[in-house]
Amino acid sequence: MTTRIPVTIIGLGSMGSALAQTLLRAGHPTTVWNRTASKADDLVTQGAVRAETVRDAVAGTDLLIAVVVQYETLRGILDSAEGTLAGKTLVNFTNGTPEQARELAAWAERQGLEYVDGGIMAVPAMIGGPEAFILYSGSQAAFDRYQPTLARLGATRYLGTDPGRAPLYDLALLSGLYGLAGGAGHAAAMVGADAAEFTETLFVPWIKALVGILAPEVTAGSSEGSPLDMQAVVIDNIVQASRGQGLGTGTLTHLLPIMQLIVGTGVGAQLKPLIEQIKEA
Ligand SMILES: NC(=O)c1ccc[n+]([C@@H]2O[C@H](COP(=O)([O-])OP(=O)(O)OC[C@H]3O[C@@H](n4cnc5c(N)ncnc54)[C@H](OP(=O)(O)O)[C@@H]3O)[C@@H](O)[C@H]2O)c1
Question: Residue limits of the NADPH-dependent reductive aminase-like C-terminal domain (predicted)?
Fold first, then answer.
């Protein structure tokens, strides 16, 4: 039987617990630490080792995976193990900014700790499944060494040695998602009482069908099927209809001036001018 690399997971919220469970199922000796120790109970029954302190958690394991609520929290946790981290690798899945990732990588370097930042593009239920993927950047040597283990959590996408790259792409993807979620929320508010059925039977299938068609059009810079000036009129109509329903229009009104500016340039729905207008907005 192939020997599995021992792993330590720091942070057992929804995501850390899903990561630990997946690694345990794959046969990795898994040590866990969480501020609220009782969150390890189920994992211990599945074979995890509960560490009483952070120093105990990192002792004897070369691959440390951290996933807590924010970077400041993680620094506080790691500070308590300072002096014991040299020669190990930290893979940090905590959400943060590119600047925070670079600062933590510099701190890790002073500890002799190799640093890889990770952006999990999945929810806990997807971890270990075929649709989960995770962005990585930072030490290439450390990423290459642990890639087979990390691949158990989701498909791996390495973006280069700048530790800030993975969080940048992570936040960019989330920005797209939150934009969509804001639009979905507004759509549901417009239809009111039928919102749940509307979302399930109309909005979601409609978006799924459109994404496949529209995404290549936008990246290729083609807007033949849906001219932008037509869309600017539609957005204005949505704003008016929303007001008629007694709704706020904050999720939409920021789009209108951007679209009108692009229409003014006469370039259609191309990605490059859209990016330029967003820089100005
Ligand atoms: N859940 C998702 O869908 C998802 C998806 C992708 C990425 N992520 C990222 O994964 C990270 C964790 O998310 P999550 O969903 O697991 O969050 P969560 O369920 O709220 O868990 C938060 C974790 O942070 C710990 N924590 C918070 N404050 C702390 C403190 N002062 N000292 C020590 N530990 C502290 C919590 O410990 P206690 O249990 O002791 O409170 C817990 O382990 C976040 O950065 C999130 O953006 C989450």
Answer: 162-279
Nearest ligand 1 atom to alpha carbon 123: 3
Mutate to test the pocket of ligand 1, among 69, 78, 97 (most ligand atoms within 8 A of CB): 69
Stretch(es) of the chain classified as CATH 1.10.1040.10: 170-280
Give distance in angstroms: CA of 121 to centre of ligand 1. 15
Distance, in Å, from the CA atom of 223 to the CA atom of 250, rounded to the nearest integer, reads: 26
**Residue of the CA atom closest to atom 2 of ligand 1:** 123
Dig out the tokens for 112 from the structure. Answer: 């002799």
Closest atom, ligand 1, to C-alpha of 39: 39
Domain with CATH 3.40.50.720 in the chain: 7-161
Residue 266: CB atoms within 10 Å? 9
Ligand 1 centre to CA of 27 (Å) is 24
Topology of 7-161 in CATH?
Rossmann fold (3.40.50)
Tell the CATH topology of 170-280: N-(1-d-carboxylethyl)-l-norvaline Dehydrogenase; domain 2 (1.10.1040)
Structural contact between residues 173 and 159, judged by C-beta atoms closer than 8 angstroms: no
* pLDDT tens track for 236-247: 888 888 999 899
The predicted model gives 107-131 an average pLDDT of 97
Can you name the residues that pair with 64 across neighbouring β-strands? 8, 90
